[in-house]
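Researcher: I need the complex structure. Ligand is DQA. Inputs:
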Amino acid sequence: MSGGILVINGPNLNLLGQREPSLYGTQSLAEINRELESMAAAAGIRVDFFQSNHEGELVDRIQQARDNFEVIIINAAALSHYSIAIHDVLRAVNIPVIEVHLSNIYAREEFRHQSLISPVAVGGIFGFGALSYRLAFLAACEIIRK
Ligand code: DQA
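Model: Output:
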């Protein structure tokens, strides 16, 4: 089936809820995804989710998204800051990308200030914790409606 939103999460985001909750909040990734699922159901939009700790698996999944999804929402986590492979595949699939981060990467260590996702994204949302995903989802729905 084509159309819809693919939500991709990178390394260590499977630990959300347990991992540094003061930075990343107490909600698990499954809980965040459930909220997006109900937003998708209300909007009548298909949503699919993928999380991996492995760069190559993320590249494979993004390649497969070509012709199958209208928008990609991605929190590439640490890979955001250095993965040319993720940058390249997002460029290659030619699907609008929305970048998400739970934390404000620009208010943290300097090595987090660079994102290789931003140059290939239509926009990004960061710093609102789990709400960043819901805001990104609203933006994705708008892109699909237009
Ligand atoms: C993150 C920020 C990254 O710098 C970090 O490596 C993560 C999570 C965020 O959502 O705030 O794993 O992408």
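Model: Summary of the prediction. Strands lie at 5-9, 47-51, 71-75, 97-101, 123-126.
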